[in-house]
Every structure is written in C-alpha cells, then in structure tokens.
Amino acid sequence: MRTAEEITRRSAIAEYHLVGEPPRADLQSLVQLAATLCGVSKAVINIIDDRFQHQVAAIGMEPASCTREDSMCARVFERPGHVTVRDARVDERFADNPFVTGEIADVRFYASSPLVTPAGIAIGTLCVFDEDPKDLNPETSDALKILAHQVVDVLELRRITAELGTSNEQLAQFAGQVSHDLRNPLMAVSGFLELASDSPEMVNAPEAAKSLARAESAADRMARMITDLLHFARVGGAQPRMVDIDLEELVRTVLEDLDSSIRETGAGIVVDARLDVVGDRTLLGAVIQNLVANALKFSSAEGKTPQIGITAMEISSGWRISVDDDGPGVPISERERVFALMERAVGDEIAGLGIGLSTCRRIVQAHGGSMGIEDSALGGASVWLVLPRGTNPATAR
Q1: What sequence ranges are listed for the domain Histidine kinase (predicted)?
Q2: E-state strands within the chain
C-alpha cells in the first residue's frame, strides 16, 4: 500500500501533466544547457513516482522510463540533495546499478540536483552523466543546482498559466460558490433558532439562550466567510491570511455548522486532528466543511448511516488532512475530473452545483499545497490535502 508521502508526490506530479507527454521545448533547452555547462554527453529531467522513473526531457539519449529499482536517482531520492559522483563504479550506492554495470548503460560520472515544488515535495531530479569519470568545479556544481530550480520555475509557470486560463470562468461562477459554501452555516442558524423557538414560552430559558448564542456565532462565521471568500476570489485567488490554527478546534467549529445534517443522517464521526497548522482559518474551514458535507451527502445517499473519519498527521513536507467516508467512492478515472468546475462524478444524481471540490483545490493550492482522492479504509472515498510547513505562498513561487 502506498504511503501518504507517495500519494502526495503522485498528486503533485499529476498537476504538471508531464508523464506520458512529448518532451517540451523549454525543458529540452534546460537539459541541453545542463549538459553544456557540465561538459557531459547526457542530461535528463527525471520525474520519480512510487514505482517508476520517467525521463520527461533528455539530451544524448531518447527519453524513456525505468523502474525505481533500476534508477540511479531513486537511490538518493528519499533524502533529496545535490549529489556529485566522480566514478559510480566505486560508490556503494551505484556500483551494482544496471546503468553502471553495463546492463543498461556504462555511467561513470554522475551528478543530480533535486526538483522540489514550492510546497516542499520532491518530484524528481535534473541529472547529468557521462561514460568517463570527471569532477565538477564548485561554480559548475552550483550552476546545476540553479538550473534545477529553473526547471521547477518553468513547471510552475506552465501550471499557473493553465489555471489563469480558466479564472474568468471561475469568477463568473463565484456567486454560486458563495451560496454553496454558505448553505451549511445558514442551516446551522435555522436549526439553533428552531431549537430556541421550541422552548415553550422560554420555560427552558438557559437552553434557548444557548441556542440563540450558537446561532449568533454561526451567523458571525457566515459573515466572515463572505468577506474572506470575496477577498480570495477578487483577483482569481488572493493570498491567504496565514495564522496559527488549532486544527482540532477548527474541525469542532465546522461540525457545529453541520450540526443539522449530522443529526438528520445520524452520522458517526471520528476526529483525530490534534495538530497546530499554519493557514487561513476561514478558507481552510470552508475546505473542511465542504469535504465533510460531501461525505455526509454521498454516504447517506447509499441508504446507510454515514461513518466519517477526519484525521490529520505530520509528514516531512508539512501536514496531511483527510476526510474518509463509507460512501460509493470515486472511480480512479473520475478523480481528476471531479475537481473541475461544475463537474460531478459519473452516476451522481444527488442535487448540488458540483463546485465544492473546485473551490477547495483552489484554496489549498493558494496555500502552496496539493489535494487529491484515494480509496478509504472505510470503503468509500478519502479526500486529502497537504499543507506545506511554514511556506508563505506570497514568496513560494
């Protein structure tokens, strides 16, 4: 079973749309420059997932793929850093590698620098190698590191450009997004007011006062959400307001806003989120609210009492939050499409605008993070997001 790190890496790789595509001219130019600077015959950009190494641009050879077991870069990839090896035959990490022994190639000199996304996720390497042993002087070695950063900058520019291409459509639908995100706080207000009104002639005055106070709190959160979501959408995705967040307390607030739906469905919800994270409290609250509301909706549509798990853990690149359910799940072929604006899963007859996941991914990406869907141990879908540790999105790219 793939680890959380591997799932996060695969999602980050998928956002760049590199694997299986023809080599891009801008990436080809960068590997040509790397080979020229280092005075070698071959240079490649490797993208490394949990199973394979994919050469997405190459000079001196045809781009190809190999298993991680055969990859030289995968030997140093788990602890990403700049690596220079004069003669791979005498390096214990590579001496038995098929790229060195002659089974695949006869590599002697090897150098690589990691490709690390703004969210701190290592997705591959910029690698140069040659059939003859050699050394790199410090200036050339530093230049290879700089070129690796340039590769990531090119990938980010392409990704952001693609996103901007759809920003007008996203802004045109923003009124729908706001109404979608505010539906649950409004339901909470109505529910708490109904509880208060059901106290005959305020006989149970303390309980009525408590319900009214909770309604007022939900209304205040709704007002903040309107302000913050409008601020976020005004320029197609403004920068989040980064603060320290008690995640468990934020989840409790979200569940309070969803109280009516939770009671109506009889859902069982388990929370394991004792973490402090950094992010925009209102925007991340809207994300978690959408994910839990979706889990309630799709699980209850199966005619069962929903079982939902909300978990959070620390990983090397930051924090991973997931919402699991026991609903119908999302087929692998649909897991990217459902993040598109107004898209809904195949066979989804449940009422809704289908815009929640699109909004959620935009918010998570504005934090410098990533988001995806996997199978849940509960039997349905596991929708997860990763937030980078201490990354300021204003300077991340």
Answers
A1: 177-391
A2: 42-48, 52-59, 65-67, 83-85, 109-116, 122-130, 243-246, 268-272, 276-279, 307-315, 318-325, 370-375, 381-388
